[in-house]
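Lecture notes, part 5. Sequence design as translation. It can be helpful to think of inverse folding as translation between two languages: the language of shapes and the language of residues. The source text, in C-alpha cells, appears below.
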C-alpha cells in the first residue's frame, strides 16, 4: 500500500519542535535600604521574552547595579545603567551573539552615565555605579560585570563565585600580597579600580557558562556578599520554595547580619535547558 507522507510530515516536524526542550527559568528579586542608608542607590532590571520564539532569538537578561556611595548621584547612575542595558538588549537584532552583545551594551551604559555628568541639571556632580549582567539563551549564560557587584552559580548545593571584584584589595590578593582573610578585613576593600561613569570608556570582564537543569544564578550587590558566607547563600537559594520568597529571604538575612548598606539580589532558577552546539559562531540544536 502506498502512503502519502506529504501531509503527515509537516505535522510530525511540528510536534517534534513543540516537544523539544526549551530554556525554562524562574526568577525572583528583592532589594532593601538596609538599616543605615536613607535612600537606595541599588537598581535592578530584566528583559523577559514574550514568546518561545523570542526566547530563542533574544533570550533573557538580568541586571543589578550599585550606585557608588560617596558620589553625588549614585542612584541616578545605577538606574541609568540598568535602563540602557535592558532597553538596548530588547532592541538587539535576533540571534546576536550574547558574548559580544553584553560587553558592548555595558559600554553604551557607561557612556550614558558619563554623559549624565554633562547634563545641565547634573553638571559638576559626580556619579558612578558598579554593574553585573547575566544573559541566558539555550543552555548558555553570559555574565559581564564592572566593579564589585557579583554573580554566583549554585550547583548541587555549592556556590561558586563567577565574577572577580575590580577592587584594589582583590588585585593585592591575586598578587599574593595579602590573604583572603586580610582582604575581608581591610578598610580599603571597597576601593574600586573600575566602575561605570567616571571615564569615557570601561572594560568589563565577561564569562560564558554552560547551564544545567537545577542550577541557580544569583546576582547581588556588595551589601549582600560582603557579610554572607557562600555556604549560607547556597543553602538559602537551594531550598524547594517559591523563588520570590527565596530572593526576599536572601536579602532579609543579609540585612539581619549587617544592614549597613543597601542590599539587592536577583535569583534565577534553571528548570530546563535547550542543549545546542556551535558552528561558525551560530547555535544549532543537538539531536536527541
Amino acid at each position: 500500500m502506498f502512503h502519502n507522507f506529504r501531509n503527515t510530515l509537516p505535522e510530525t516536524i511540528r510536534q517534534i519542535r513543540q516537544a523539544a526542550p526549551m530554556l525554562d527559568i524562574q526568577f525572583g528579586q528583592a532589594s532593601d535600604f538596609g538599616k543605615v542608608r536613607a535612600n537606595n542607590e541599588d537598581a535592578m532590571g530584566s528583559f523577559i521574552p514574550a514568546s518561545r520564539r523570542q526566547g530563542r532569538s533574544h533570550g533573557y537578561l538580568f541586571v543589578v547595579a550599585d550606585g557608588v556611595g560617596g558620589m553625588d548621584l549614585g542612584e541616578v547612575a545605577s538606574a541609568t545603567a540598568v535602563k540602557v542595558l535592558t532597553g538596548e538588549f530588547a532592541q538587539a537584532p535576533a540571534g546576536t551573539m550574547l558574548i559580544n552583545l553584553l560587553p558592548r551594551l555595558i559600554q553604551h551604559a557607561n557612556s550614558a552615565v558619563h554623559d549624565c555628568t554633562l547634563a545641565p541639571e547634573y553638571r559638576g556632580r559626580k556619579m558612578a555605579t558598579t554593574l553585573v549582567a547575566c544573559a541566558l539563551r539555550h543552555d548558555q549564560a553570559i555574565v559581564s560585570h564592572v566593579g564589585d557587584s557579583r554573580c554566583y552559580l549554585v550547583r548541587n548545593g555549592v556556590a561558586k563565585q563567577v565574577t572577580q571584584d575590580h577592587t584594589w584589595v582583590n588585585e593585592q590578593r591575586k598578587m599574593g600580597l595579602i590573604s583572603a582573610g586580610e582582604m575581608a578585613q581591610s578598610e580599603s576593600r571597597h576601593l574600586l579600580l573600575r566602575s561605570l561613569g567616571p571615564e569615557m570608556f570601561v572594560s568589563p570582564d565577561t564569562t560564558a557558562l554552560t547551564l544545567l537543569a537545577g542550577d541557580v544564578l544569583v546576582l547581588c550587590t556588595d551589601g549582600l556578599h560582603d557579610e554572607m558566607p557562600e555556604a549560607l547563600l547556597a543553602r538559602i537559594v537551594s531550598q524547594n520554595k517559591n523563588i520570590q520568597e527565596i530572593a526576599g529571604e536572601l536579602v532579609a538575612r543579609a540585612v539581619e547580619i549587617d544592614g549597613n548598606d543597601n542590599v539587592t539580589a536577583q535569583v534565577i532558577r534553571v528548570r530546563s535547558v535547550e542543549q545546542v552546539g556551535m558552528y561558525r559562531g551560530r547555535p544549532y540544536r543537538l539531536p536527541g
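The translated text above is only one of many valid answers, since several sequences can fold into similar shapes. DSSP finds nine helices and twelve strands in the chain.
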